[in-house]
Every structure is written in C-alpha cells, then in structure tokens.
Amino acid sequence: MRSRAFLLVGLLVASASAQLSARRNVLETLSAALSQDRAYDAAERGRLMSALKTRFADYGFQVVDPRRRAAIPVLLHVITEGSFDEQPPERVADVAFAAYQAMSRGAPAEEVEGIALYGYTKSIPGDTIAAWANGYRQMVEAKIPGPVAADLVNLAERRGLRDADFDTLKWALVSGVKEGYDAQDYAIFLFGRIEEGKEGPGAISADAKAEFRRAREEKRRPHLPHYVGIFNAPPPPPPVYEAPVLPSLPLRSAVIDYGRSSAPTTVAPPPREAAPPRETPAPRETAPTPGSPAVGVSPKLAALWPGLDATANSYLGTPYLWGGTSHSGIDCSGLTSNVYGENRVKIPRVSRDQYRAGRDVANSALRNGDLVFFNTLGVGVSHVGMVVDASKRRFVQASSSRGVTITDLDGKYYKTRYLGARRVIP
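Predicted structure:
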C-alpha cells in the first residue's frame, strides 16, 4: 500500500514538473514572440533581449500564467512602438518594465497601453502609470466622460503632477459629478486653475466646491477660467461625406495567442481593390510630384486633396498625447480622423474602426489619402497613418516619441508590420 502511495505521489510530482517546464516565463515569451518579428535581425534582437533581461531582472522569470497573460500583448505593443521610433534598447526596456509593473498592480490593459507610451518622452515610473490608468477607469465608472478623464491624465503628464495631486483632482471631479454638476464645467474649473499655477490641487478643489454651490444657489453658471482640452476642443465642421464602415473585417496577418501557443493562425484576406488601369500614362502620372494625388484619382479626391495635404502638414511637430485630438497633442487615430474631419469627411475615431472604413486597397495601388495600418505582433490594428506622397511611399503619423512626422512606408519596422490600407474617398 505504501509503495502504491509513493508511486502516486511520484507520478503527481512528475506531472506537475512537466507542466511547469512547459510554461514560459515573461522573458521566454517575449523572446519567442520577437523571434517571429522579421523587423529585427539577430543582433538587434539580441541587444533588445539583453536590455529587457537586465531591466526586468527577477520579474522576467515570472511564469506567464492566466493573470499575467494580458500583459504580454501590451509589452509587445510598447516594444514595437519603441522600434518604430528607433529608440535605444535600454529605453524600450524601461518603458516596457514600467508597463508591466502597472499591470501587475491591477491597471487595465487598454489604458496602460496608451499611457505607457508617454515613457518615450519622459521617464514615468510604473506606479504612476498604474495610478493614471486605474484613475481613468475609476472616473469612467463614476460616469465621467472618457475624454474628460483622459484629459486629467494628460494634464498630470504635462504638468508633472505627483500621484497624490492627481488623486486629489480625480476625487474632486468624481465628487462634483456625484453632486450633480456638469462634468465638463467642473473639469474646466479644476484643470484651468491648475494651468494657472497659483494654487495647489487641494485649494483648487475646495474653491471648485464653493463656487459651484454658490452658482447653484444664485441660479447662474459658475465662473470658469479659460481652458481648452481634449473634451472641449472646437468641433470639426459638419461632414458632407461619411465613409461607409463594414460590420467586421478579418486581419490578413498572423494572430498569435501569447502565453498559450507560438503557432500563428492565418486569416484569409478580404477582397482587394484592383490597381487602377494604366493607359500610356504621362510622365507626371508615373511620377506624381509631392503634394499631388497619385495616378487614377477620382474627381472627389482631386478636389479634397489640397485641403487634406494642408491639414496634415499643419500637424507636423505636434506632440503625442494619449486620446489627444488637437494641435496641442494628438494620437495616431486622432490625427487621421482630424485630417479628414477638418475637411468635412467623417471617419471613425479609433484605429480599429478606421480599419473597417472605406474600401480595401492593394499595397501596389496606394494613392495619397489612403489610410495605412500596422499590426503589433498579434494584437491587431494598433497604429494608423495616412499616405501623403504615394510616389515615394511616405505617410504621416503621430509617433509616441517624435510627435507627428512623415515616415517611409518601406522602412523595415513598418513594412514587416504592415497590415493593409483602406481608401476613404472612392
């Protein structure tokens, strides 16, 4: 009987050991994913993994269990964004580790993914990213509009607010909304007074409560300082055309479930739009000048292109801002939606939805104004830009570290992650 018991225990231990050995830790999972990324050669991948190993230290050996699995796509997105901007491996590792720390503290993945990119312009600890990401979620759950909540995060990043000061403003805003005050007005008071820099968050929060109570008693609007943020930026002109949006569109690149399997599942591509016919094109058509539409453009695009081109150029140099939609700060999908929106063409705000707008376009048939999309190693659509010089295959984008720039579509970090293109104007 004892021998059977020992045998059973031995089998259980052997089974547990086998299962444990089959599970990958964080560094092994990242290494396996990056080995599938054709953008890196062996030397580049080695330098990046060395930096990640140094920065993650013992955290890198944590097993990717179901709780940690959600962090892997976020880390890969952060790493890839750093590669897009040709950041040093050590800087990429710092930002990735901060994102991992934030998620380890329970911060939501979607918010961490956008907020962590601030780390490419200034050093932001994981605790702070977690405070901002969790704070955003708490505000949204308290019925504060998402753009207002995002603006507080942007304000904290821009002004270098301490986590305690961010929390003071967050709870002041939540309290004001619970008392029935307008969220935008309350935010304008708080954020505008912070921008003035005359008082601290505690005093400003007390002033807000007093002013809004007086205004309610006197049946008037509160006295508000000047403040323009994400949520109250001037709206674009009314659209005259709205791009059709498909209910769904499969990704044509590999989809990988990190932490479970390294085998990609390929999805069949959607039908492509054929390249425009070429009937003895004139020299200007085969080599269009910068700032002019490509060969075969429609009259509608020909009429819109000067405005689209001018609007895109007006954003050059604008800094990256999570959720940003103005010349003060903008993100990748905010840039493309603004460029079209300011020219009275409505497209979705989010890059994933923009990927479903308009018509699919073959890579060989790109023309100015087409939206180009990139897939960050299995996390789906994660980056978008707009073609501005089809003859030289260049596109405008909002980069996390360099702001709005014009970039070569055939650069190795982009062409290896290229997902597809959509034509908004037929």
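Summary: The chain has a mean pLDDT of 84.
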